[in-house]
Amino acid sequence: MRPHPLDQPVLGPKCSPATDGEVGQGAIVNMNAKVFRRKILLFALAMPFIAMVNNVLKYGIWELKLRFRTRLTHYLYDHYLKGFTYYKMSNLDNRIANADQLLTTDVDKFCETVTDLYSNISKPMLDMSIYVYRLTTRLGWATPSLVFLYLLFAGFLLTYLRRPTGRMTVVEQKLEGEFRYINSRLITNSEEVAFYQGNHREKLTLLASFEKLVRSLSGGMFWVQTNHLRKFLEFRVGMGVMDNIIAKYLATVVGYYAVSVPFFNRNHPLLSGLAQEERFRQYYTSGRMLVKLAEAIGRLVLSGREMTRLAGFTTRVTELIKVLNDLNQGHYERTMITNGTVSSIITDKSGLLVSTYWIYSHQVSRVRLY
């Protein structure tokens, strides 16, 4: 299971100075045991409140997801169970063969990804606003500007590299839905399967569906058998490497370079004329803030990974809503192929046959029924 964003230390609220090793740091350096004990005691007293804040934030994210899923589920079921829409989707329209997968798993993942994206964006943006303000007052606008330029570059580059993620997510969820549908069909018709002793045939059907999931068909004009899940896994591993390099390590390098620029400037209005000890203190404080700023920017750039994944789930949910609206308006689409011949049937909204014609074709064609 994917860890929740608020379970990750880099995204959790840094209400405690112990997260940065700063409890009594000055007291230890100055060998002041009394101040050190006092700060340790204050930190121990603050522990329950820190833990409460962290879990209240998690509760807010979970509650947001639950409410979002509740409203979306009510909306979808209002359309799905309107009249005979559920019957039309299964028998008159074949654009969606696994409505149960869309209404349950895909909706849940869609809502979870939306709420995770919210937490992955809001916390880094808050950190960025705080650190940019503090760095600007200490070092001027040049240092944060350099970091933000890198943010734009990294964001555009990673967005370009992540483009296949949305399409791969759509294919994966569609194949998962088909595999789930065949399993549920066996459960529903288990009595008939047992009566006709069709367990071996059903086993072949289930394994064929699973192989279709693992080895999906893809390609343009020529259909090529590829290993979808493994290809997706290899793609995610490669993107994970690029994410770490661009959004974490290079961001840290850029941050150190940006903070060094004003210190190498002998005519800097805020740093020139300071003693070496004071310059070291300024560098230490500014360096820590700039590293935190680089980490916040890295997390914001990495949130694009969830955004591309969200695009796949959005496509699935949008397709379901579109089909439900078409069915409620009396528009159906059905594909029929018989030995290279596509049979096209046109009906009116009441289902009466208007005309029938045959088109010889080697490709699958959509038939819209009005």
UniProtKB/TrEMBL annotation:
Gene Ontology molecular function: any one: long-chain fatty acid transmembrane transporter activity
ABC transmembrane type-1 domain: residues covered: 40-216
Bilayer-spanning residue ranges: 40-62, 141-161
Keywords of this entry: Membrane, Transmembrane, Transmembrane helix, Transport
Entry-linked InterPro entries: ABC1_TM_dom (IPR011527), ABC1_TM_sf (IPR036640), ABC_transporter_sub-D (IPR050835)
Any GO BP annotation: peroxisome organization
Keyword set includes Kinase: no
One CC-aspect GO term: peroxisomal membrane
Designated name of the protein: ABC transmembrane type-1 domain-containing protein
